[in-house]
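User: My instructor asked us to take a sequence, write out its structure as tokens, and then describe one feature of it. I'm not sure where to start. Here is the sequence I was given:
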Amino acid sequence: MIYRKKWLLISMLAMVLVLTMEFQVLYAQTKLTEMSLDRWAKMREVERYQMNIAEKYYKDKKFDVAMSEFEKYLSLYEASDAASFAQLKWSLCLNQLRKQNTAIKEGFQSVIDYWPESADAAKASYLIGKTYVAIGRVPDGKKAYQNTIIDYPKDAVAVYSLAGLAEIAIREKDEASLVKIWKQMTFDIPRTPLIRSTCATAANSLAVYYFNKGVFASGLKSLQTNYKDDQLSYYVYYYSRTPIGSLVGTDETQSMGYKVADQAVGFLRENIEKDVSTEPLKAKAIGQWSQMIELQKYSRRDKEILAAYRSMLGVFGNRDDLLSSIADYHVTQKRFEQSRTIYRQFKDKVAGLSKVAQSFRSELKPDEAVVVYKQLAGIDAENGATWRGAEAATYRQFQKYPQAIQGYQALVKTDVTNFQQWIWALATTQHEANQFKEAIGTYRQCENFPENYKQMAACHRALKQHKEALILYGQIVNGHEGLAPWAQLQIAYTYEAMTSRELAIKAFQSCCKKYPKASYASTAHAHLQNKYKISVTLGGATDE
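Assistant: Let's start with the prediction itself. The structure tokens for your sequence are:
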């Protein structure tokens, strides 16, 4: 069972990296389907003309026409240096037309048979394997990839074939083959420009594999083929954190996870910036310390996390940002009193008290939070409205609506500069409190059409004042193009709530016909079919 879980995790992580590798291979493969500038230069003008015609149709995805043009090139210029390329592109057209078996037998294989010394022969060999895998003939694909590696060991296609074999190994859960391939790509293959990123991704995959196995040294060695110095430290942190979290999450592998965490943290500590004489260097060092602490968090060892924070304070002093990180961590552990003790040590007293108030809210103690917000309004008079707003928001968060409404009403009168902010807060709070009539009156003072009209209509519907809601939805239809489909759908639902069957059906149909590309039209269409057994033509494709 443990092996199954570990393989599942390894394969999931590997698949993410292999998808990255696939993207890199696909990017590099654009070179496989293009001809080098040197070869273009060697072509005669008439040859270039015909090839350009064929290429244009290929790029326009008119593959049947492109096939004819490539075939025409072959009949006219069979002795040309670019003939093998034309045959390759002819084969790719067949692939695109879903005639893969013909592409393999009569296309790619012909490139190899008739132009074995050309650059296109290696490409064709690789594409045979890729095509076999694409159509589900995996054993044939594996064999073709292996032949490509043997026949063209120094060509980039050998590496692309290895990447293809790695993908197959993951799908077949063949761990031994997968690791062997990754090792080969990591340590044995020179990193030329065309294959550098593909080999680098294999090295990262191998590092993740080793970290998951608890072998930190081998994972580090893999990463060292890609990175140096600060980059190496960052990627040790980046690639080891998830394996650490996974390992410590299972009793059977917990000690292994702690060991990898200690080794990774030790490596980061050795390479941390010691010179903090300037602000840029200090910022760099703080970032490195943060990564080290983050690894400790993945190991879920509270004692080590707090010890790391204390060490960090010893280096940088009681900075507010560092104190905040420690206190915030206490909050995540529900040690609220400890967090507040630290927040109160901030040099910026206002920022510290704001954090204290928020911690009371996190602890579900609204009254204590309100006391702190009142204190803030007193010592930070310039931003008094902000703190009174936070006080009202606290009452609202805990559904103490009378106090929240009273607070927002006071702000509407006293903070004229931010009138729209507070009137909207008041309206939505009244709405939440089911004070629909009062909310409608307050929404009318808001200037954020159409949102205020949406909410007013919702209040009218809650009061069963359907006609008033219909008027508001109609104003949205006529006044806001973007929300018109939504409003039309709401009109239909409102008629339905009024038990006006015919008007509801007509409104649903209108939504389908007026806005065929809107997602709301699909909703209306489905509702008509499911509830009323009526089919209607949308008149166009549905846009998400």
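For the description part of your assignment, you could build on this observation: Residues 2-29 form the longest helix (28 residues). Try explaining in your own words what that tells you about the chain.
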